[in-house]
Amino acid sequence: MANPANKGIVYYSAEAYNQINDYLNSNKPSKVFILVDENTHELCLSKFLAKLKDASDFEIIEIPAGEENKNLETCSGVWSALSELGADRKSLLINVGGGVVTDLGGFVASTFKRGIEYINVPTSLLSMVDASVGGKTGVDLGNLKNQIGVINYPEMVIIDSEYLNTLPKNEMRSGLAEILKHGLIKSEDYWHRVSNLANLELQDLDAIIKESVDIKTEVVTKDPFEKNIRKTLNYGHTLGHAIESYFLTHESKTTLLHGEAVAAGMVLATFISKKLKNFPEQKLEQISSKIFDIYGRIEVDQNDIASIIDLMKFDKKNERGNVNFVLLKDIGEPEIDCLVANDIIYEAFDFYQEA
Fold first, then answer.
1. Which of 152, 194, 235, 241 could form a disulfide with 110, with the two C-beta atoms 3.0–4.6 Å apart?
2. Are 210 and 136 in the same domain?
3. Which residues are in the 3-dehydroquinate synthase C-terminal domain (predicted)?
4. What is the Cα 285 distance to its own chain's centre?
5. Pair (200, 268) in one structural domain
6. What is the C-alpha separation between 14 and 1, in angstroms, rounded?
7. Full domain range(s) for residue 69
């Protein structure tokens, strides 16, 4: 569904809790359910509940943490729990967690009894600046990312950066990758500001989160169903998702966080942009150097590349059998629906390994 004017609004800090308390008081859902994973149940739930005026009757549903649990089997468990606990069409689901919880919880709510209302409370940097904004919900199909889902906006999104104090450094870096992406597709000024956040200090991060959310919100408002400009938000994701999927299911590989895979995908996409769109070589070197400094380098050998390329055919941006890339003519100048030959992709991996 398209975004109604009063849905999906992002609220911050103290105002956010005032908004959710006002919502609960005025809408009076028949039952309120909170979806958490085992980590946010332990680290975030009590803080969230303490901000609510009356949470005495709320039901808590816990799912296992991790991308490997973002699937229809987990959805089935949550649907069953909702049913057994007496959820009806006037119930509300509040998703407290990272991107797995908000993506899966949004999909569960959008499909249970043909749709109940939900609210997102993202607790990771990645979900704050990406997963919880724009109404995308969904789960993976096997190792294929986000193949099943709908676009359906939450009642609201609550962002409180204090939850970031619970995150390990690698999860903060994972979220930073999406902020870096926003810089590359938006403006050189924003790229330079956010590319110097590698120390990930929480001070000043509130303003960066808000600006990143504003960038994504502006794009999805213009193109809610990803027909054109919203595709630019997938910069680095065509190869990034394929790399993430490949590493998820090969025992010899270490499972990657989403942002780690997207960071590699952005280096690859920027090299391809130089080859096909004359992206400035000096800026390619600066971007790749910055990303390598923050994320290091993923080990990919020649035998992996063919399988990774094969996985790209499942990318949701593809049309008529073509793999569509987002490329850059320059920082802040993205171009969508670009076709890339396999030999250029192999060249990009050579650059990634050797740069």
1. 152
2. no
3. 175-318
4. 26
5. yes
6. 29
7. 9-167
Q: What is the pLDDT along the chain (355 residues), one digit of tens a residue?
A: 456 667 899 999 999 999 999 999 999 999 999 999 999 999 999 999 999 998 889 999 999 999 999 999 999 999 999 999 999 999 999 999 999 999 999 999 999 999 999 999 999 999 999 977 899 999 999 988 889 999 999 999 999 999 999 999 999 999 999 999 999 999 999 999 898 865 556 667 888 999 999 999 999 999 998 889 999 999 999 999 999 999 988 888 999 999 999 999 999 999 999 999 999 999 999 999 999 999 999 999 888 999 999 998 877 666 666 788 999 999 999 999 999 999 999 999 999 999 8
Instruction: Assess whether 148 and 233 both reside in one domain.
Output: no
Task: Show the tokens assigned to 53.
Answer: 């005026």
Verify that 36 and 158 share a domain, yes or no.
Answer: yes
> Do 178 and 58 have their domain in common?
no
- Lookup: tokens for 23: 């919502």
Number of continuous H segments (helices) and E segments (strands) in the chain: 14, 10
- Mark which of 151, 167, 183 sits at the end of a domain: 167
